[in-house]
TrEMBL record:
Pfam family, any one: BLH_phosphatase
Record's protein name: TIGR01244 family phosphatase
Ranges of residues in domain Rhodanese: 61-144
Superkingdom per UniProt: Bacteria
SUPFAM superfamilies: FAD/NAD(P)-binding domain
Organism of derivation: Jiella sonneratiae
Matching InterPro entries: BLH_phosphatase-like, FAD/NAD-bd_sf, FAD/NAD-binding_dom, Prot-tyrosine_phosphatase-like, Rhodanese-like_dom, Sulphide_quinone_reductase
Length: 560
């Protein structure tokens, strides 16, 4: 329990988990002040879960959420008011503690000497010098000077960011690279489907971030507040300025749990689960094992989403287990998809439909989850008919697997780098920003019309690395590297068989293997072995290490 004392009445720390709250109470804390908005991280408990655990421990919890790096004077005033009202002592938390400390520092302006504010924050391990700069500059962070400078700055330590750093380091020596990410843990998210299917243990899908940062690459453990591409600057949480020559933006996307009314208050209880969160995927398997009949609903929100096949992967693995145990005949399974098709590449629909028929799944297209009541085991969907008319329909459930709506992270959506939909704008072939040539992007956050999968990031990383190094004159290649939109979705249609869907821009099938080895139009045991046994080591030991089998980028054609 790593709390940092700022005053006798207030301590701060990183993310609090519900199971840590009894220890906080035993340490004497009487209230929890939550400054981290729900949905920032894939493994983050919601405020409803924190509040429930706090009440059980005899503590009070208050929700004063603040977006990363967007601490306003009004936010500081709300923080001060909450701190005044709550029983003392209080522990406040966000992702790392920096936001909570910033709120406190701003709330103390005029009440304490600035050196005292800075000294207390520094003693707790937080640098608040940027707050002083902000106050002195009328609320803005000046970018004419910077605390840090690196030639190449990568925002995001997920699949795309680490792969890009490793790919760069493998191609040129002596590069000055920094990765910006506040997370201590890196997750292999494709494995969560198999956690929810009882194949993997959750701990098999995580590694310490420190173990994955490529040698020679600096890790800046901070969250990004804003981009100022005209000044080649990134503003970090705490108002620190980081300058770059080249920027790679790869922070992933945001799971918007709050986008479904009532969802946050009921996740992990009452039969409501999701494989899109590390700590909930095991609950999916618990529900599958305990359900002996009734109604099981599986949802899919509007596109784009991370791994568009994942919603039905969860469904097929669940149905297989119920079929194996002989309870599928007692279970009504319904797939409620906000879109209009089962899968976006038409050639893969017929083999998937064979499993839909085998498991007796009802398909309901044009159904978007809007509200859920866990205790009442009821969900409400907005149904859009072929003529565009809309209606709200009510569905009862014994189990529901929910996929939340998904957007670009807030600090991306409001930035100059974003397109109208909020994603980082890129040329879909070179992955370079069309308006800011020093900026590249890859992974789930960028705007190219490809599937948002780890397999896509594996192909994108060498494209970004080659083009960026070509810009810097570090490699001798006259032609630009080109990304063709490759993505892959190993559809787990049953335990032991996978339909390996591979495709590029325009829904074009691009199978990687000869038909005699893996026929991409037929579920196979070989493809299952690839999914279960081969792809995880490829991810950890190849993709994140700068080794790129079957990922060599193509190049633009030169004119005759």
């Amino acid at each position: 329990m790593d709390t940092k004392k700022l005053t006798e009445q207030l301590s701060v720390r990183d993310q609090v988990r519900p199971d840590e709250i009894p220890a906080l109470r035993a340490a004497g804390f009487r209230a929890i002040l939550v400054n981290r908005p729900d949905g920032e991280g894939g493994d983050q408990p919601t405020f409803a879960e924190i509040e429930r655990a706090a009440k059980a421990a005899g503590m009070e919890a208050r929700y004063v959420p603040v977006e990363t790096g967007r601490v306003s004077d009004a936010d500081a005033a709300k923080f001060a008011a909450a701190l005044d009202e709550l029983p003392k002592p209080v522990v406040a938390f966000c992702r790392s503690g920096t936001r909570s400390t910033t709120l406190w520092a701003l709330s103390q302006a005029g009440l304490r000497p600035v050196p005292d504010i800075l000294a207390r924050a520094k003693a707790a391990g937080y640098d608040m010098s940027g707050v002083v700069r902000r106050i002195a500059n009328g609320g803005r962070v000046p970018t004419d000077t910077a605390e840090m400078r690196h030639d190449i700055v990568i925002v995001g330590g997920g699949a795309g960011g680490i792969a890009a750093a490793a790919s760069l380091a493998a191609r040129a020596d002596g590069l000055d690279i920094a990765i910006v990410d506040p997370a201590d843990i890196h997750y292999y998210q494709p494995g969560w489907t198999l956690v929810g299917g009882g194949v993997f243990k959750p701990e098999e899908t995580r590694r310490d971030m420190a173990s994955l940062i490529p040698e020679g690459v600096k890790w800046i453990r901070a969250a990004v507040a804003a981009f100022e591409p005209d000044a080649n600057a990134v503003i970090l949480e705490g108002c620190r300025v980081l300058k770059y020559k080249k920027l790679i933006v790869a922070p992933g996307l945001k799971l918007d749990w709050a986008g479904v009314e009532g969802l946050e208050a009921t996740l992990g209880r009452y039969g409501v689960t999701s494989n899109y969160r590390y700590d909930l995927a095991p609950y999916t398997w618990e529900l599958v094992q305990s359900l002996s009949g009734g109604t099981a609903l599986f949802t899919q929100p509007p596109m784009p989403i991370k791994c568009a096949g994942a919603p039905q992967k969860a469904m097929y693995l669940s149905c297989y287990e119920w079929e194996r145990r002989g309870t599928l005949k007692n279970t009504r399974v319904e797939f409620l998809n906000a879109g209009g098709v089962l899968f976006g590449v038409k050639e893969y629909v017929p083999p998937l439909m064979e499993y839909v028929a085998r498991y007796g799944i009802d398909l309901s297209f044009g159904h978007n989850l809007k509200k859920i009541d866990g205790p009442a085991k009821t969900a409400w969907f907005e149904r859009t008919d072929a003529d565009g008319s809309k209606a709200i329909v009510e569905k009862r459930f014994d189990m529901i697997h929910v996929v939340p709506p998904q957007t670009a992270p807030d600090f991306v959506r409001v930035s100059p780098l974003a397109n109208e939909a909020g994603w980082v704008e890129v040329d879909q072939a070179t992955l370079r920003h069309p308006r800011y040539p020093d900026v590249y992007s890859l992974g789930d956050v960028m705007s190219a019309p490809n599937a948002k999968t780890a397999a896509a990031a594996r192909k994108q990383a060498p494209v970004v690395a080659e083009n960026l190094l070509r810009d810097l004159g570090r490699i001798d290649e006259p032609r630009q590297a080109i990304y063709d939109g490759y993505g892959s979705c190993p559809l787990t249609v049953e335990r032991g068989k996978v339909l390996l869907a591979e495709f590029a821009y325009g829904g074009r099938r691009v199978p990687s293997f000869p038909k005699w080895f893996i026929d991409d139009l037929k579920p196979s045991k070989t493809a299952w072995i690839l999914k279960e046994k081969i792809l995880p080591p490829v991810y950890w030991q190849a993709m994140l290490k700068g080794r790129e089998p079957m990922a060599k980028p193509a190049h633009e054609k030169t004119s005759a």
